[in-house]
Structures are given as C-alpha cells and as structure tokens.
Amino acid sequence: MNDSCVDCPTYTFTALNACVLVIYILLMIFIVGGNILTIIAIVKTEVLRTVANVYVTLLAFSDIIAGLALPLQMVYEFPEGRHELDENKSLCLGRHVVFFFSISLSLCSIVVIAFDRAVFIGFPYVYNRIATCKQAVIVACICMIIAVVDGTVTLYDNNWQPYESCTVETVLSWRYQLYGQVIPIMICFFLAGACYGYIFYIAKKHQKSIMSVQKNAKVANDMQIIKVLFLIYGIFLLCWMPVILYIILVRFFEIPVLVLNITLPIAVLNSGMNFIIYAVKNKDYRKAFKEILHLDCTLKRTAKVTPQKTNDIATATSDNKMN
C-alpha cells in the first residue's frame, strides 16, 4: 500500500509542533487533575452531594475525557504519528470520535446545569419537589446517549481517504460539521444564554421588590451567584466561538493550519475553566479541596491552640455564601 503512495506529503517536526505539544501537555494536566479533584470532592464531602452536583460531576467526567483525548491530538504533531493517522482509517476516525464525544457531553452538561439553576431560582418550590438524584442520573444518562450518537456519526459519515490529512476539515463531512457540530453548539449557546438571561431577570425582579436590609443582603448574595453564572456563559462563548468560526470559514477560504492550532486549544481550555468556575469559586469546594490536599493541617493545629472568638451565627451565615 505504501508503494502506491507516490505523492505522499512529507512532514518535519518544527518549533510550532513543539509549542503545540507543550500547550497540550499543560492543558491535559490542568484539565484532568482539576476535574478529578472535583469528583473526589463531591464523593467525599456530604454537603456537596446534591442534585445540582450530579450534573457538575457529569461535566467533570466529560472534561476528563476531553483531557485524556489530548494525547491523540499530540500524536499528530510528530511526523511518524501524522503518517500513521493519515494512513490508518480506524486510528484517524477514532481520534475524532473520542474528541467530539467528550465535547458533546461537555456542552450538554453545561446546558443542563444552566437549566437546573434557572428552575431552581425561578421555581424553587417546584424544584424542591421534582429534583431528585434519581431524576438527575436519568438526565445524565440521556446526555451520555446524545454524546455517543453525536460523537460516533464520524464513523459512518466521513471523507477519509488514504494519505489525506487526518484533520477536521479534511476527514469530517460538511454535513456533520454543520449539523453535528456548528448547529448543536449554536443551540447550546442559545439555550444556556436563555437560561442565564431568565436567571438575571428573576434576580433583578426580586432585587427591586425586596426592601428590608436583611433580605437585601440575601439578594446581594444571589446577585454574586448570578455574576458567577454569567462568567461561566461568557467564558463558554469566548472559548468556543473562535473554533466555530474556523470550521465555518475554512470551507470557503484558505486558512493556515496555525489558526486551528490556536483555536482548538482555546476550545479545550473551556474544560479546565469549568473546574475553576464551578469548583474554586465555591467556598464548600475550596474547603473540600483543602481537606483532600491536606492544606488545612496547619489551620487545624492553630485552631486547637487558639480558640475561635468569631460569632457563631455570623460564621454560619458566611459559610453558606458563595464567594
């Protein structure tokens, strides 16, 4: 088979390939480490074992898969690995299936979390009645099925040819790029934006209607949570919009592969940012992380020697707030 390849492209390992490898390695450590820590915190900490955090666990799982899929992207930076992927259909398609499965699951999880928070804030009594862990697990399974279906479309709808470049724009059919990636991601943008817009509307409505000092303090805390949610959505847009534009424009214009090498890591970075926003921004998660990493040992020893003189009620109130 190799004898028939007269015009096979020749690849060399360049400084750009080295830079991309370093970026992917750092991303993998950051994404996998952070999201594993998130799942451990949820499993080991009773206060974090909530219905909402079932969806956060699903998101963390999808982000771990995205991080573990990065070595398949790294292989393409080596000349030998690139030749192997260009010549082996199973390896080439498998590379894209794993990546797009993780991305689909991550996007689905983000929308589910946005919808869950919208129902929680807009219809708290209904939410407390219908939101159960069993229901959350069912929703998580539906997300998994959607991700599997969307991710495996590449196996039977592709433009793979031997010795052709194993890249997104070459291997994936335009139908799949449009209907399986661009449109679903845009739908996720719209649904998540609608949910966060509704949350903001409800929060502003409550802020205007509540006048007492005590309740105003609660509204201020709620607004802090709303700001975090909008931060999630803003980073979601910033990370994904460049690669979406690339997928669309590359069909009509000659765009250097350098653009893909820049936009794809930015999109993958969203998997690590999810860990920071959903986890590190929450006081309960930070406390759980300190216990898991044994960073609170010094504080505990100090607490035994010097008793706390802080007002218990104020401390309890502070602990219930998200910073």
Automatic annotation (TrEMBL):
Keywords: Cell membrane, Membrane, Transmembrane, Transmembrane helix. InterPro entries: GPCR_Rhodpsn, GPCR_Rhodpsn_7TM. Gene3D superfamilies: Rhodopsin 7-helix transmembrane proteins. SMART domains: 7TM_GPCR_Srsx (SM01381). GO terms for molecular function: G protein-coupled receptor activity. It is found in: Cell membrane. Coiled coil: none annotated. It is a multi-pass membrane protein. The chain crosses the membrane at residues 21-43, 55-76, 96-115, 136-156, 176-203, 224-249, 255-280. GO terms for cellular component: plasma membrane. The keyword Transmembrane helix applies. Pfam families: 7tm_1 (PF00001). The lineage of its organism: Eukaryota, Metazoa, Spiralia, Lophotrochozoa, Mollusca. It comes from Patella caerulea (Rayed Mediterranean limpet). Its main location: membrane. Residues 34-278 form the G-protein coupled receptors family 1 profile domain. This is G-protein coupled receptors family 1 profile domain-containing protein.
